[in-house]
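If you are new to this repository, start here. Below is one unmodified record pulled from the training split, so you can see the exact layout before writing a loader.
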Amino acid sequence: MCENDDRPAPAAGEGADEDPARVGPARVGPAPVPADPGPVLVELRGEIDLFTAAPLAARLDALTAGLRPDLLVDLRPVSFIDCGGLGVLLRARNRALARRGRLRLISDGGVVRRVLRLTGLAKVFEVLPGPPGVGPPGGTGSVLPPRTG
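And here is the target side for that same chain:
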């Protein structure tokens, strides 16, 4: 009770636990477990290069700041990616893994898939041909293995 409080102190057994000013460990319950919202889809378009790497890095840093981030980065509309763009994706992947999350790339072929293969990063990233649950006709929708050659 505060010194300036004119209310009488409750007697033992008379609602002493009802006082809203009394908050202690006994009144704190377990935190609610939020429902799994699913992965966050990030669609990138155009060119990912030195000029676009900084704003992309800032956005991916924000998305991987929490516990267990789950990102899907859709690279299908990307027409060009350089080492700066690859570095940003690697950094985001490492941040996600460090927070017990994951980062998956969506690439159905084209220039991004070729750059990932040539740099050896197709073995580092989990690369999907499309969003999860949407597989090729007659296929299983599983992760594509890195192509050789």
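Two things worth knowing about this chain: The longest strand covers residues 70-74. The longest helix spans residues 83-98.
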